[in-house]
Amino acid sequence: MAPFHESRVAPEPIIAPANGFVANTFPDNPTDFQHDLLTWYRAHRRKLPWRESPSLYRTVVSEFMLQQTQIKTALPYFERWMTNLPDFASLAAAEESTVLKLWEGLGYYSRARNLHKMAKAFIEMPSPPRTQEAWQKLPGIGSYASAAIASIAQNLPVACVDGNVVRILSRLTANDKSFTDSGSASKSFAPLATAVLNRDEPSDHNQAMMELGATVCHRRSPLCTICPVRRHCAGSRNGDPESYPRLAPKKIKQVAVTRGWCVQKGNLLLHRIPAGAKRLAGQYELPSSDHLPIAEEATVITTKKRSITKYRITETIREIAPPSLLPDELHWVSFDDLSDITLSGPHRRWITELLD
Ligand code: SF4
Fold it and tell me: pLDDT grade, residue 9 (50/70/90)?
């Protein structure tokens, strides 16, 4: 990794401050903290498409995509989205099938539907919202997204508080309080995030906090020796920054799913999720034992494991014979048409692998 702040690189371990290390009690001097953070950000920020040629639309799309998705995963999707749907008007006028196809593989498809609805509502407004509260009235925009859009795109003085910011603030203050979940931690740190917000430069300040969390103050092994705000950090000073924030471990639930693999004359049997379903409506997936009988002794083709939030899912795919009667939601889809339909990300990967 490139050194972000060479003048601050110290040769000793993070638990031993360098000579001349100034131990402030955060946030005794928010101006110094803001200055250190902003100077580093402006010199070392990553070039990202929504930063390099910013616009309100590009900020909104990036914020929807980056909920639950890492930047490196979202980048190709963002570029493809902008080529096909370059502004609010084109998004509002698009068919839902086009929107979902462009989103295919990013997961959490309610974000795509909400972004579509949001664009439809947005183009009916006489002018863009100008407060965090007004942004929250639009579909799919909650507390964090409204703060991010209002501050990043409109430079309004609103602090963003997400997992990155909670991690940084809890370490800067060596906060010992225990939290049952990340939502309660965000609420608890919101006043501090507001207190240290650079009100002259809210856009760059919020982006700098996110950048620091993403590239320096990692969840595991934070890079304290090159951190631009190390002199303000009590967590680094006490030698165990990684122990903050004190979040209760998530309760993991194991789930087992059996799916059928059924091929006939160049067609694959797929289940189409009903239009009114809460999740993945209208998308195709391999049918499960909820959709047709799958004998326990049927040959196992492959077993896949994946995680969604607190669920650890084991999916066993078994070869099955074509059913004599096809239930309503099951369809034969020609191999040639598979690229035209919307499959959820994991299902497309599995099908591609199994047809290879
Ligand atoms: S990287 Fe280290 S010094 Fe910087 S904020 Fe995180 S814990 Fe503190």
Answer: very low
